Amino acid sequence: MKIPGNQLRRTRTALPGIVGVARVDRRTTHLLARLQPGDIAVIDHQDLDRATAQALVDAGVGAVLNAAPMISGRYPNLGPEVLVQAGIPVVDTFGGEVVSRVKDGARVRVHDGEVFDGDDSIAVGRPVDAEVVRGELESARTGLHAQLESFTHNSTEFLRREQDLLLHGRGVPRTATDLAGRPVVVVVKGHDWEAELAGIKPFIREQDPVLIGVDEGAEALRSAGHKPHIVVANAAAEELPALPLLKKAKDVVALVDRGAPATVTERFERSGIRPLRFETGATTEDAALILADAGHASLIVGVGMHATLDEFLDRRRTGLASTYLTRLKVGPRLVDAAAVPRLYDGQVRPRHLLAVMVAGLLALAAAIGVTPVGQEWVDAASPAVTDTVSTVIDRVQGLF
């Protein structure tokens, strides 16, 4: 018997779970560029960090399948919590074979930790919900001492390699943009960057700070209606900021490893851009902060940056020491953008207008008082003023 097509479609759509096109890549950064809303992201990313998780949420994925554990227990990483709070189904610990079993571009269904290709089950993992995340994060926090010991060693090694830069400011490129005595806003496309950038809009409008976009932070500035004065980009990154953004910036700073050959900046030069070369092992975010500090900025406002212990540990292992030591270097000048609206709102209140008006009237009175006509007015008004003051004093004394 032939089953009508519409009945067959109803049967298929009645199957439980999330259905979407699988996008597979062991390199999560490559995968992010290909994702479309509703796709099933298949990754191999142990200890998913918050920045990557937020990028998955922003891409609108239907589910995330991870060959590796979302939380290995080494430290309390923040990525899984971001996905769960966004309501995205998460399944992990499939094992490396899931990357080969699930074909890129295939339409798959995910239900109760199981992946189906048609009617065939092709992989089984562990569903990760809020309770699982909460329990594993708590367990991970008990083992932090090992990570902190490793962090101390890495910080010592980083300071040894970068002591001339951090302690003496040697090797920082000199920008055409004058930073001395000016506020600087450094934008990283990190967690909550949109809300933070919107919150300091009055500050940007009225204080006219130097705007530094770091990697994708340059595009974040543009999308918010601002033009970055300086763009700091990693020359080794797979994708550079958009060419129009680079050409409009007054300064482009290319971050390269120490001793890197001149060819590492060829991508910029082929586009007609002559970047300032910044040789350091610091991250691009930290390099931007060092750049602002070396330029004697009066204040540095960080957008998309956070400096809690969990945030430090959630960063890539190579950037942990860089971030910690850079914060120590620029600490007196650095302010988190989330705090700026509480400290500065840019509003002119009635008492400010009243003070200006009184000051203006006093200045006008003083100017008139030194003229001949003004002297006549003062002489004529003196008896009346004296009588008024005496009356007020008598009435006040009568109250006691």
Automatic annotation (TrEMBL):
Keywords: Membrane, Transmembrane, Transmembrane helix
Signal peptide from the UniProt entry: none
TM region positions: 352-373
InterPro entries: Put_SteA-like, SteA-like_C
Pfam families for the chain: SteA-like_C (PF12555)
Residue span, SteA-like C-terminal domain: 339-381
Protein name: SteA-like C-terminal domain-containing protein
